[in-house]
Amino acid sequence: MAEPTTPSVMEKIVSLCKRRGFVYPASEIYGGLNGFWDYGPLGVLLKNNIRDWWWRNMVITPPIGPDGHPIDIVGLDSSIVQNPKTWVASGHVGGFSDPMVDDRETKQRYRADHLMVAAARVKRKSGNTDELGLFAVLSGDDASDVFVKKIDKLARKTGGGEVLPPEGFTPFTKLSAEQRQQVVGPDVSTPGTLTEPRDFNLMFQTYVGALQSEESKAYLRPETAQGIFLQYKNIIDTTRVKVPFGVAQIGKSFRNEVTPRNFIFRSREFEQMEMEWFCHPDEARKWYEFWKDERMKWWRSLGVSESNLRLRDHEADELSFYSKMTVDIEYRYPFTAPDFGELEGIAHRGEYDLSQHSKHSGQKLDYFDQDLQVKLKEQGVSPEEIKAKSRYVPNVIEPASGLTRAVLVVLCEAYRNDPNRQGTTEMLSIRPQFAPIKCGVFPLVQKEGMPEVAEKLYLDLRQHFTCEYDQKQAIGRRYARMDEIGTPFCVTIDGQTAQDQTVTIRERDSMAQERVALDKVTGYLVDKLGNPCG
Ligand code: GAP
Fold it and tell me: Rounded to an integer, what distance in angstroms lies between the CA atom of residue 186 and that of residue 136?
């Protein structure tokens, strides 16, 4: 019989998310659909709070620029389906693909660069070391364990012995074609069943209109960014923005990922928060550094701890086809720890996108910089040089993050499992400002006028922030449920309320309780919550 295994932190988080209504598998009653998730009643509140915080910090009150003056960022909500020429110009039709490998025996499909290969070696009782061949496992923090377990099974069938830990993994894509044919795939026991890697375009296709033909073929956007480039000219012509300025957008993107995994980390339908910052080419580096700092500050403001965040520059061979340089903001996810995984990319896209769209559409997408013209005139620069320098194609710095990935990070960061805690061992210590429910309001019992007082207080509090009224179950269980969903405050109306007009306010993390006058509760919580989202 298989030994029962203890659930990993990630499994516990996924289970809590389902049990408490944060995230459900999409179309679960039909067996689900790999890579698609639904955000439940609490998940949608949390997601909207993070979305609103990003929008507030990008569009409503963007950071002060490096010269000490306010900067301009405007918003956009563009279509998911655009003219398909968009994706030819952007390079996605030609180049937005992952290398994919099929297993001929099991019909499983893997991302070739996620298959990690190592030589299996077993030390026999005789003292000899046998080489059992090349074996592939999926990349991840448990790759070594999975590898050793698989080889151990095989070793037992062939006389036993001690499996030696792999001496280092090589990605399947880095092997020679001859070596690839000798690899045993992750779900089989014989070599040679894996195909050669083939490029697989990640864009979902659809048809526009009644006829399904090559001419009516269109794509679901794989990034929100391109919608911004397509409206760059309209925004310049119809609003008062001048270079440098930004355009921000939040919305759904779709990628037919070969191996969606790690819960909502890599899904096929997800939400992005992207901002394209248009600037003078000579200033692109300055703004790249500026946005690197600002974006790190933003993640910290969400309550993500410094030790779980890091910046990682892309190597030259990692850069996307459009990028001159890119840095990733990475997070130490439970499934990557002690390593880190991508959270946001900040890319220097140069003039790639505007030049490509200009070339493919025949429209001029350069910029005439009046302020620069005046400055150059004052400097006594020659008219020819002024003319040449004042018209240019802006460069773009792009901080691009995933909203749904941010939800995952906030949940991972907030998750606590404390066996000594009363009521529940599991809780979410979400920064109060972003918690889906800010306050639970409870009558201690359903009599003696307590429900009436509690309901009145609830109606008042919900004018200010999200609240939940609950009068069922023992008070300890109600507190425990609120801890599990990350509610920072609970207010309880009890027998003493009728006597002295005070209530108990309980704080989630410390579980400390204090008596506060009924008519001071709103002010007390408004003070504590500051400027809450939701
Ligand atoms: N416009 C540039 C761009 O889309 P990206 O690195 O491909 O760059 C930006 O995506 C962010 O979108 C990523 O850092 C990640 O947070 C999120 N993202 C990308 N693919 C995702 C997926 N399959 N599931 C969830 N989030 C994803």
Answer: 5
